[in-house]
UniProtKB/TrEMBL annotation:
Entry protein name: Riboflavin biosynthesis protein RibD
Binding site for substrate: 162, 178, 198, 201, 261
Annotated keywords: Hydrolase, Metal-binding, Multifunctional enzyme, NADP, Oxidoreductase, Riboflavin biosynthesis, Zinc
Record: residues binding Zn(2+): 45, 70, 79
Organism: Flaviflexus salsibiostraticola
Known role: Converts 2,5-diamino-6-(ribosylamino)-4(3h)-pyrimidinone 5'-phosphate into 5-amino-6-(ribosylamino)-2,4(1h,3h)-pyrimidinedione 5'-phosphate.
Amino acid sequence: MTRALSVASSPDFRPGPNPRVGCVLLDPEGATVSEGWHRGAGTPHAEADALSKAGASARGATAVVTLEPCDHSGRTGPCTRALIDAGVSRVVFAQSDPNPQASKGAQALRAAGVDAVGGHRSAEAAELNRAWSFAVTHGRPYVTWKYAATLDGRSAAVDGTSAWITSRAARSDTHRLRGECDVIMVGTNTVVVDDPQLTVRDSDGRAVAHQPLRVIVGERPLSGSHRIFDDAADTLHLQTRDPARVLEELHRLERRHVFLEGGPTVAAAFLRAGVVDEIVAYLAPALLGAGRFAIGPLGIESMTDILRFTMTDVTVIPPTIPTDEANIRVTMRGSVQQHNEEGPYICSPE
């Protein structure tokens, strides 16, 4: 299973409507017959990939899979049928499939006489697909809000300048996180003021082959001259201020993970709506003393209504050039949800 989890994490996976999955086929003596992994929607599932490499050697083998084999036909056929037809005798999987359209794979395998056992290292497998699992069970994309700020919480100076608060290494790390999502989102004000391109680039500054959908939120009309409308990636302008409507549309488009990079107004709107699931904060060792805050008003007037998240990681990002300084990346998770009108926002930690 360790190896299956490793191949599932392959860098050639394309984020989208499907999960990361790895599969290792073992012969009756426990030796590896073949390995397979899923590379994204429309490509063979991990089980099919491993079976195609194994050929006749798959008969009597044990399939170790990070996710319960699917039992439905979508862009590809059901993995349960492929395993049964190949003569696999046993299937060991980690995470049960949370997708109601594809679940009950273990049940189908057992009905065909295949020994199917689940739950081994399920927490690690679930973490591998935390955004996808959330999306298919909650009916909306998982939302990661990313922001960069000084130690006093400022994202721009009084004159509006904000380039660059964080270091080159921190910005490179942001591109890595962008590449793990299938949506990058900002508000109309960010487009007008900063004119970002919102693409994913590698450490050498080159655009990567797979680009997330660029999404703009807000009612303000925009000129096609902005860089976000170039041909480097697809762009969608959702002319609404309602976070629920935005996420509903993106879920309909089978988008699973939103990387929210909007300014303080958009960020506050998503927090007030209770749809921020993760926060990634890049903090620079600097002070401005005045200027724009990273987050707008949340309607909180008392400590009883404070929003608290569960900190999951703190990483010092060292400089890559002599003129830069180290930055800190803090990752927090939690489930912010509307409570009531008097005490509107609470956070339930995971």
